[in-house]
Design brief:
Serine Threonine Protein Phosphatase 5, Tetratricopeptide repeat; 11 helices
Length: about 190
């Protein structure tokens, strides 16, 4: 629980702090599926937000994710971790299959619906992305990461007015949450788009 709390901060500090909880749990008992899945998720996001090189992090991501699924095929977090590993390997169909497995095992798993929405938005499938992020919001309407994904999904769908409206609502929950500001800035400063 502590590891997931820090993971959901979506910061390099949070990922490192989460690893500090997941790694000892995994070392103490290598059969703790949640710890393996948590490690895979943290290393995957650290590649994006911090300095570890993909060459350094990818083996840890893939090893932890595969170990999590081998330990338990019935745990949604295992499939979520493997989905993320497949995404970084550009195996989009495998990633989507694992996301669907995770949702099938745990239909109210807000994190998975949010992650699936991100994948669908990136694949320019806005209607499906919107369905997934709405499901995430129904199960966890106060989640700042969910709000950030609402804003991102609208931005990817080129609904700029909707992006700004939802960003303003999200900022009221926590004015310091940087991910909301990032997506809002893409609308306000189109030259910042990559």
């Amino acid at each position: 629980m502590r590891g997931r709390f820090f993971f959901r901060q979506f910061t390099a500090y949070g990922y490192r702090k989460a690893i500090a909880y997941f790694q000892p749990a995994s070392d103490l008992n290598p059969d703790i599926t949640e710890a393996c899945a948590g490690l895979a998720d943290c290393y995957r996001y650290l590649v994006v937000t911090d300095f570890p090189s993909p060459a350094e992090a990818f083996p840890k991501i893939i090893d932890s994710a595969r170990r999590a699924v081998l330990l338990s095929t019935s745990l949604a977090e295992s499939h979520t971790a493997l989905s993320g590993a497949f995404k970084h390997m550009y195996r989009w169909r495998n990633s989507e299959e694992e996301r669907q497995r995770a949702i099938g095992l745990y239909p109210s798993y807000s994190d998975m619906h949010r992650n699936y929405a991100a994948l669908l938005a990136a694949e320019l499938r806005p209607r499906e992305a919107w369905e997934q992020i709405n499901q995430a919001m129904r199960t966890d309407p106060l989640s700042l990461p969910n709000w950030a994904e609402v804003v991102r999904t609208l931005d990817y769908a080129r609904d700029h007015d909707g992006t700004l409206v939802q960003a303003q609502k999200a900022v009221q929950l926590d004015p310091s949450y940087y991910r909301i500001h990032f997506w809002r800035a893409r609308v306000n400063f189109p030259q910042a788009r990559v």
